[in-house]
Description:
Layout: H1 2-26, H2 33-45, E1 49-52, H3 59-69, E2 70-71, E3 74-78, H4 85-89, E4 90-96, E5 102-108, E6 115-119, H5 126-129, H6 133-138, E7 140-143, E8 146-149, E9 155-160, H7 173-176, E10 181-184, H8 190-201, E11 212-213, H9 214-226, H10 231-243, H11 253-258, E12 259-261, H12 265-281, H13 289-300, E13 305-306, H14 308-313, H15 317-329
Parallel strand pairs: 1-9, 1-10, 2-11, 3-6, 6-9
Antiparallel strand pairs: 4-5, 7-8, 12-13
Helix pairs in contact: 1-2, 1-3, 2-12, 9-12, 10-12, 10-15, 12-13, 13-15
Amino acid sequence: MSDLRELERELSGLRGALSALEVSVGSVFLGNAPLVEELLCALIGGGHVLLEGVPGVGKTTLVKALAASLDLSFARIQFTPDLMPADVLGTRILEEDEHGRRTFRFHRGPVFANVVLADEINRATPRTQSALLEAMAEEQVTVFGERLALDRPFFLVATENPIEMEGTYPLPEAQLDRFALQCIVKMPELPELVAVLAHTTARETPRPKPVIDRARVLRLIELARAIPASTDIVEFVGRLVLATHPSRAGAPDEIKRAVRHGASPRAGQSLLWTAKARALFKGRLHVTLEDVERLAPACLRHRLILGYEGQAAGIERDELVRAALARARG
């Protein structure tokens, strides 16, 4: 009984820290609480995030506000066509000591930070983009034949501009699949836009202070993974993932017409992990159908590869996700 009470007190404190983190980020990134929630669910769920939005809507501001609110190391990588893998991972430097002996020392790149902002990731060449694949999937990198573990937690947020076409390299499907969530940063409505303009032009915007440390973040990730999901919830996620595959007999007609490839099993894993994080975020020790349905669009939209008919018709991927959700409900 004493252990249970101790766990309840710990959970209460951790939920308070999560609420403080949400408030801290929201004090800088105004008017889009659902997006902040998605970002925190990915952080606590142990996944990575792809932020998509036109220039100037606050993608970088959001990530910098999160990093400033965490007592973790932060690095920003500005992706450009001439960026090399060594600029991301690090390189060996030849050094000479006082006795004239020369040795190589590995200088770590920015990927070794806890929170990494990969700004405009689609402007880098595929060779440089691929430098992040191992880091995202296994929390390690291989440099000069040596495997180096990344510091935990490792949270990568990449941004991309959907309207910039020249000089860009679209992310391959294999890399898209490694992002737990794709979050869309939309143009704010008038009330939110007015609040942003008033907040950012009246005075210097204060920099958030860290409200949660590394140990608490790791503990939150550990507890989120331990939150149970019922057999019905897991089965629902399985039906949802299969409903995105056009080759399945039970797939919705919209999926069969518009989609060339559906979501992978990794999509189901990401959906369950982030749903568990949301449950913890909401103060529950079990996953509900609401958690799954809330995060399904962000988890699946970037994993649906459209066929020719879907691209020509300009079908929104979120519409296809809603069709898959309706079919999964039975």
